[in-house]
Design a protein that fits this description.
elongated, 2 helices, three-stranded antiparallel sheet, alpha+beta
Length: 67
């Protein structure tokens, strides 16, 4: 099984969508089901997405979910 660093180094498609109702931006990783976050600006949304991706991968590794 790969380690967290190896998964973090892999390229996952990131989708950024403007939230016209609430404001800000929503970011998701389609290859990582349920991994999504948001931010007031594109920059903050992307930074939050990196944290969300790491937390998602850590949980998947711990729960032995195939990535």
């Amino acid at each position: 099984m790969k380690m967290l660093n190896e998964y973090m180094a892999m390229s996952y498609r990131m989708e950024i969508v403007e939230d016209k109702d609430e404001g800000g931006y929503v970011v998701s990783f389609p290859e990582l089901p349920g991994c999504l976050t948001c931010g007031e600006t594109v920059e903050s949304a992307v930074a939050n997405a990196m944290d969300a991706k790491k937390a998602w991968l850590e949980a998947a590794i711990e729960d032995e979910i195939e990535i």
